[in-house]
Write a structure and sequence with these properties.
Blueprint: E1 20-25, E2 28-34, H1 35-45, E3 48-53, E4 60-64, H2 66-83, E5 89-94, H3 100-115, E6 119-125, H4 134-147, E7 152-161, E8 164-171
Parallel strand pairs: 1-4, 5-6
Antiparallel strand pairs: 1-2, 3-4, 6-8, 7-8
Length: 222
């Protein structure tokens, strides 16, 4: 049986060891009473005496139904956990000589990723002798960061790792998830430079077999 750590975190009624406690509640002024009197008062009100601040002098207790108190604490923990957004890393790949069409296409998706609260890993992949254009790749990534300045901040400047020059951009703020319009699909062509993840709106018709370029998550180095 799973141990309820939250339930064991608080002393209730006779479990309270202090001689006197300060009691608080929704319908009672802050008052210091001997612990026996505080327990008796809780019984009269049909609630429990729950020690919420054991290190205070004297310890602070609340007059409340213990089950209701635990429910409120668990609900608060769930809300706090839900607010901790899970950050994903989305990859966007460039070639050293990416044209404006592909660049703007990927810029639009990077804006969407950052607006969703995801990080962007932008990199330039150099094939064969194209490594000679590494300065050109660095300029491209810095331009990319500048165009995304409103939506994200650079976590790491462009660094060459093997055949890739990599840069990370973190979101400035988190907003609700947004779907990218289906109209973006016509931007995908057969170019390897247009390989980027595209999120689509739900469609009622059964999806046709996808024959376009690779999407994010496949091996780019082949």
């Amino acid at each position: 049986m799973k141990k309820d750590n939250l339930k064991n975190q608080y002393r209730v009624n006779e479990q309270i060891r202090a001689r006197e406690v300060r009691i608080v509640g929704d319908d009672i002024a802050s008052t210091v009473l001997p612990v026996r009197d505080a327990i008796h008062l809780a019984e009269q009100k049909g609630v429990d005496l729950v020690e919420i601040s054991p290190n205070a002098e004297p310890p602070v207790c609340r007059l409340i139904d213990y089950s209701k108190f635990l429910y409120q604490q668990k609900k608060r923990q769930k809300e706090m956990k839900a607010k901790q957004a899970k950050v994903e890393v989305k990859e966007i790949r460039f070639g050293p000589q990416t044209d404006d069409h592909d660049y703007n296409f990927k810029l639009k998706h990077a804006i969407g990723f950052l607006s969703d609260g995801d990080k962007v890993k932008a990199y330039v992949f150099f094939r064969g002798r194209s490594i000679l254009f590494k300065e050109q790749g660095e300029v491209l990534l810095l331009r990319f960061a500048q165009d995304l300045e409103e939506y994200g901040k650079v976590e790491s400047m462009p660094v060459l790792e093997g055949k890739r020059m990599i840069m990370f951009i973190a979101p400035k703020k988190v907003t609700p998830k947004k779907a990218i319009a289906d109209d973006d699909d016509d931007l995908l062509d057969g170019s390897a430079e247009a390989e980027v993840e595209v999120r689509k709106k739900p469609q009622q018709k059964a999806p046709k077999e996808y024959t376009g370029p690779k999407v994010e998550g496949e091996d780019w180095d082949d």
